[in-house]
Write a structure and sequence with these properties.
Distance between the termini: 65 Å
Number of strands: 0
Shape: globular
Radius of gyration: 23 Å
Strand content: under 5%
Length: 163
């Protein structure tokens, strides 16, 4: 019986001896400082034309994502960096890809929905038209047009968030 108890306790003792200590709680000040560092980093990476380095096939997508992150972090829409980003995003008036169009729509809705109502309407109509209408992926979205490829969960999530 003694060997049985030792055999059961040995793994517990080994785990306890090798476990790292749990750090203390993170304070609101630490969270705010981390957010402020993230804001500073994003602003430092912005190009003079208001954009960030883009990925091929998703024109304006990275710029939209960075702009949405700044807005979500509490940067005001009238901030100089956000104004440059918004002017940059205004140039992408023709929707072409699900990710980028959904992200631009979210940015415009968050920054100033009344000012960007016409572009939001164009983007929403395009996203609705791109939803796959039939087949095994009915209701999903793809990377580009509904006629290209099958549905993709990530694209579908972004489209739904925008809508």
């Amino acid at each position: 019986m003694r060997r049985f108890v030792v055999a059961l306790l040995l793994p517990v003792v080994w785990i306890g001896a090798n476990a790292t200590s749990v750090p203390g709680q993170i304070t609101p000040e630490q969270v705010r400082a981390a957010i402020d560092r993230g804001i500073a980093f994003l602003k430092s990476q912005q190009r003079p034309d208001g954009s960030w380095t883009e990925l091929r096939g998703q024109a304006g997508g990275v710029t939209s994502l960075a702009t949405l992150a700044l807005l979500s972090a509490g940067v005001a829409p009238d901030d100089e960096h956000l104004q440059r980003a918004l002017r940059c995003l205004e140039r992408f008036s023709k929707p072409e890809a699900t990710y980028a169009t959904a992200l631009r729509t979210m940015v415009f809705c968050r920054a100033n929905p009344k000012q960007y109502l016409a572009q939001i309407d164009v983007n929403v109509r395009w996203l609705e038209s791109q939803q796959i209408a039939s087949g095994p992926n009915k209701g999903a979205w793809s990377y580009g047009s509904a006629q290209q490829g099958s549905g993709d969960n990530s694209n579908s999530q972004f489209a739904l968030l925008a809508l």
